[in-house]
Design a protein that fits this description.
CATH class: Mainly Beta
Order of helices and strands: HEEEEEEEEEEEEEEEEEEEEEEEE
Helix content: under 10%
Number of strands: 24
Strand order of the largest sheet: 1-24-23-22
Largest sheet: 4 strands, antiparallel
Radius of gyration: 19 Å
Structural class: mainly beta
Distance between the termini: 25 Å
CATH topology: Neuraminidase
C-alpha cells in the first residue's frame, strides 16, 4: 500500500473512531478502475506531455493537446523545434484519427470545441521562454475540424495586456452563441484576467486582476461553462473555483474541489475537477486526484485518488485536465508521466 493510500485509510479509521459523519473530500468512494494503454499514436510516436482533453460534440471522439516531443528537451516549450502535430483527435478505442497544428505552437495548453466542431487551442508559453522576434506564443487559434486556421486572437510572440495581447493564455471556453472566454494567464505574475470576445473575435470585455479577493486570480489554469451558462474558473494558486455570470459578475467560490487544474461538466449535472498539485505545501490537508460532485449543490460525492504523485517529483503528478464521455468514462490529461489515462466506471 502506498503512503497516500495508507494516509486515506488512517484518516477514515480516525473519523470512524471519533463517530463523526463529516469526512474530508479524499475519504469518498472511488467507483472507477484504470484502463492502461488506451491512447495510441501512429507511426511509433511516443506520447508527449498531455495538456487539456475535451470531448467532441459528436460524443464519440476525444480531443487532446499533446506537447510534441517525448520526453521533450525542455519543459515549457516542447513544441518549439518539433514538427509533430500537437492537436490530436481520438476515437473511443483510443486510435488517433486526426491531427494538426505542427509548427504553430510553442507550449500548447488549453483546448475547447464549439458546437460546429471547430477547435480552439491556447499557447501558454511563458514570456521568459518566448524567443525574441518569434511568430508563435501568447495566442489562441481557432481551427476547423480538419485543421484549417479560421481565426487567431492575440499578438504572436508578444506577451502583454490590453485587447490585442495575452500573457500565457491557459485555457478557453466557447459559449453556445459563439462568445469566446479566455483564461489569461498561466502564472501568478501574468495578466490574471478573463477576456471575452464575440464569435468573430471582436473584443467585448474583461474582468479580473492578480490578487486573492473575489474576482481576482493567481494562475487561471482552467475555464469551463456549465449547462446554465455560468463561467467556472480554476483559480489554482488560490486553491479555489470561482463562479461568474457571462458579464463577469461574481457568484460564488468553491474550495471543496481542492487545488483545481481542470474542470469538466457532463450531461447529468455533475462536475469533474482535476487536482494535480495539492500537497502539504501548496494545499495542506488535501490529496491529488479527480473530485466529482453535483453542480447544483457543489457537494463532492466521489474521488479518484492519485496515490503516487507529487508535484515536486518529476516522476508524475496525475491529471491536470479531465473529460467525460457519454458512457461516464473519464479521461485524464497527464503532463507527467505523459499519458491520457482512461477510467471506466465499475460500480453504480
Amino acid at each position: 500500500m502506498s503512503r497516500r493510500s495508507l494516509h486515506v485509510v488512517v484518516v477514515a479509521l480516525a473519523l470512524a473512531v471519533a463517530g463523526t459523519s463529516l469526512a474530508p473530500a479524499q475519504v469518498l468512494p472511488n467507483p472507477y478502475r484504470q484502463v492502461e494503454g488506451w491512447a495510441k499514436l501512429p507511426d511509433g510516436r511516443e506520447m508527449g506531455a498531455v495538456g487539456k482533453v475535451t470531448m467532441d460534440p459528436d460524443g464519440e471522439h476525444l480531443w487532446a493537446v499533446i506537447r510534441c516531443d517525448a520526453p521533450g528537451e525542455f519543459f515549457g516549450w516542447e513544441c518549439l523545434d518539433s514538427d509533430l502535430d500537437p492537436v490530436v483527435k481520438f476515437d473511443m478505442d483510443g486510435n488517433a484519427v486526426e491531427s494538426f497544428g505542427s509548427g504553430m505552437f510553442i507550449w500548447p495548453h488549453g483546448i475547447d470545441v464549439d458546437d460546429d466542431g471547430n477547435v480552439y487551442v491556447t499557447d501558454a508559453v511563458s514570456e521568459a521562454r518566448t524567443p525574441e522576434g518569434g511568430t508563435r506564443g501568447h495566442q489562441v487559434v481557432k481551427f476547423s475540424p480538419t485543421g484549417e486556421v479560421l481565426m487567431t486572437l492575440g499578438t504572436p510572440g508578444q506577451a502583454g495586456g490590453g485587447r490585442d495581447h495575452f500573457n500565457a493564455p491557459a485555457d478557453v471556453v466557447v459559449a453556445d452563441n459563439g462568445d469566446i472566454f479566455i483564461a489569461d494567464g498561466h502564472a501568478d505574475n501574468t495578466n490574471n484576467r478573463v477576456v471575452k470576445f464575440d464569435k468573430d473575435g471582436n473584443y467585448l470585455m474583461e474582468w479580473g486582476q492578480t490578487g486573492y479577493a473575489p474576482g481576482e486570480f493567481r494562475t487561471l489554469h482552467a475555464i469551463a461553462m456549465d449547462a446554465d451558462g455560468r463561467i467556472f474558473v480554476g483559480d489554482r494558486s488560490n486553491n479555489r473555483l470561482q463562479i461568474f455570470d457571462q458579464e463577469g459578475n461574481f457568484i460564488a467560490q468553491w474550495t471543496q474541489f481542492g487545488r483545481p487544474s481542470g474542470i469538466f461538466f457532463d450531461d447529468h449535472g455533475r462536475i469533474f475537477v482535476a487536482d494535480s498539485e495539492s500537497d502539504d505545501l501548496q494545499n495542506p490537508g488535501w490529496e491529488m486526484g479527480i473530485r466529482i460532485g453535483e453542480v447544483a449543490t457543489g457537494w463532492v460525492t466521489e474521488f479518484i485518488l492519485y496515490p503516487w504523485g507529487d508535484p515536486r517529483d518529476p516522476a508524475g503528478n496525475g491529471a491536470e485536465f479531465v473529460a467525460v464521455d457519454g458512457e461516464g468514462n473519464i479521461y485524464g490529461g497527464e503532463p507527467r508521466p505523459r499519458k491520457i489515462q482512461k477510467y471506466v466506471r465499475v460500480r453504480p
